[in-house]
Give the backbone structure.
Amino acid sequence: MKKHLIHFSFLFLFFNSHIVIAQQNNWMSIKAFLPHWNGAEISLIKDNQVFYKAIVTKDIFSFTGNIGKALNGSLKVKASKTNFYIPVFWESGTIKIRDAGSGVLVAYGTPSNDLYFQLNKSFDSLAAEQKNLSFAEAMKFKINQAATFIKNNSSSIVSMQLLKDYFYLAA
């Protein structure tokens, strides 16, 4: 009987520790440092629905919540009468948002957001390395780069966003 109690205790601790770890892995945090965006309204969007709204105060916006499974979505910034949208992958971890200059906002800090940011940066750099490309030719070059990534990573959540960016919105 004592042996069964010890085994049960170990099993109980094992399963409880995995439940706690699984619950912890579903949390995401968003930390945004947005100087010059004070007073702007931030909306977090998934499945075409706003799930959180707040105002940038003292250059900062933050959110913490349980996300469940990773999803692609967007962050909308409404500043005066202008709306800015950036793609964001809602996934476990700390997602960081920053102003990259000229009103361009970027998301990074989690695996999918980092990959998306690096891919777009790479596509831009590779296109710039091509000499004497017109805008249309540079765009076609970037579409080919995106297509290669999608073909090689068809199950990636980032591929879904690239399909939207380069094949749906660009058409």
About this structure: Strands lie at 27-33, 41-46, 49-55, 60-66, 71-79, 82-90, 93-99, 105-108. The chain is about 40% helix and 35% strand. Residues 1-24 have pLDDT under 50 and may be disordered.
